Amino acid sequence: MNSLEYFFLDLGLSWTYSKLIPYVLAILFGAGFSWFLLVKIKKQSWLKFSSVIGSFALPFIIYFTFFPIYEGDFSNLGVRSNSTIPFPQKKTLTVVVLPNCPFCYQSIRLMKKLKERKPEITIQYWISTSDTLSRDTKIFKVIPDYFTTFQKYNKAEISKLVQDTYPCFILSKEGKSLKLWNNNHFGVSALDEIERFFN
Predict the structure, then answer these.
(1) What pLDDT, on the 0 to 100 scale, is given for residue 46?
(2) Is residue 72 part of a domain?
């Protein structure tokens, strides 16, 4: 997410609306500008026609160029999970990561914003590893202290649970996992669902 989307989040809008509104505004801005040209350019010509069409599309094209819509951006393709791995009794969002996964590091900023919006959300990080990691390892330094962080040594079991996709996001309550998203299917509508889950 970019700064404009975070601005709308800070206004209290949902994750989905905050992602969608900048694209809608770009279209409206283009429509307004093209209407202005349509009124101002009196002479009917191919230049007027192309200017109106171009000015309508240009703002959206520029915004989309810098902030394209990826397949998973609006996705909520989580799957039901009934893993036998024990989870906390209270409602929890567990983020499963690898120590050196760049996408896992990107998840931290997103989780910080989620926690900022909904302080009552319990978030924990599981670091899937078969080695003992020092507390000086980078992953421990960048995960905030208000997220509980564990090393999980049963890597084969964790890998099976998350189907070797990292980061992976798991909702659970009463000690059982309920729903699981891999990173490609964890879009803004999934974040909205998580916020509703903790309401």
Answers:
(1) 67
(2) no
pLDDT means per 10 residues, the chain with 199 residues, are 92 95 94 81 70 84 89 83 85 92 91 94 89 80 87 76 89 92 91 93
Look up residue 103 and give its two tokens. Answer: 């996408």
Residues 13, 92, single domain; the answer is: no
The answer to whether the beta carbons of residues 149 and 125 sit under 8 Å apart is yes
Rounded Cα–Cα distance for residues 148 and 188 (Å): 23
Residue 25 in tokens? 């505004």
Beta-bridge mates of residue 84: none
Asked if 16 and 97 sit in the same domain, the reply is no
**Do 55 and 120 belong to one domain?**
no
**Distance (Å, whole) CA 121 – CA 124:** 10
Q: CB–CB of 117/197 below 8 Å? A: no
Phi, psi of 32 (to 5 degrees): -65, -40
| C-alpha dist (Å) from residue 4 to 7, 14, 141, 142, 152 | 5, 13, 28, 24, 36
* Helix, strand, coil fractions of the chain, as percent rounded to 5: 50, 15, 35
Counts for the chain of helices (H) and strands (E), in that order: 7, 6
Amino acid at 195: E
Residue recorded with tokens 């036998």: 84
Cα 152 to chain centroid distance, Å, stands at 24
CA proximity to 69, closest of 20, 27, 117: 20
Helix pair angle (102-117, 3-10), 10° resolution: 20
